[in-house]
Amino acid sequence: MNEQQKKKISKFLSYVLRHHPELIGLNLDENGWANVDELITKSKRESHQGLTFEELDEIVQTNEKKRFAFNEDKTRIRASQGHSIEINLALIPQQPPEFLYHGTAQSNIESILEKGIEKRGRQHVHLSQDKETATKVGMRHGKPVILTVRTQKMFEDGIEFYLSDNEVWLTDFVDAKYISN
C-alpha cells in the first residue's frame, strides 16, 4: 500500500471512527470501539473504501500519530482521541508535565489569548508534549503559532488532564491565564 492509499484510508477511518459512524451504519460502543469484521463488511457494502484486515492492521501499526488502536485480540478498533461524538475513552486523570504546547494558526491567537483554548466541536482540548508536534498541528490551520500552557499550575488549581493512548494530553478547557506565546 502506498502513502497516498494509507492517507486516504486513515482519513476515512478518522471520519467514521471519530465523527460519523452512521455514514456506513457502523456501531460504536460507549468507549468508541467498533467491531473490525463489521467495519470491513460495511465499508465494502456501502461502496466506500472496501477495507481489508491487512490494510487496517498496516494503518494501525504504521500511522505515525497512532490515531487508531486495536484491542488485544484485534477484533475491535477505535480512534485514540479527537472524537466529536460523545464517547468515553475510559481515561484516568493524570498529572501533566510542567508545560505542554498547543499549536494553532496566527489568525486564532487574539481570540485564544482573550477567551482561552476551547474544545469547540471535540470532546477535549488537545495539547502536545513537544513544540515540534504542536508546530505540525498548527501548520494544518495556517501560519503556525506555538502556545505554552502552564499545565502544572492548572493541575494544582484542580483541573484534570488525561493522556490518550497515542500520548496526546487532553483537558476540557485552557483558561487564557495559563497561556503564553
UniProtKB/TrEMBL annotation:
GO terms for molecular function: NAD+ poly-ADP-ribosyltransferase activity; tRNA 2'-phosphotransferase activity. It comes from Chryseobacterium luteum. Keywords: NAD, Transferase. The keyword Transferase applies. This is Probable RNA 2'-phosphotransferase. It comes from the Bacteria. It is an enzyme of class 2 (transferase). Removes the 2'-phosphate from RNA via an intermediate in which the phosphate is ADP-ribosylated by NAD followed by a presumed transesterification to release the RNA and generate ADP-ribose 1''-2''-cyclic phosphate (APPR>P). May function as an ADP-ribosylase. One of its GO terms (biological process) is tRNA splicing, via endonucleolytic cleavage and ligation.
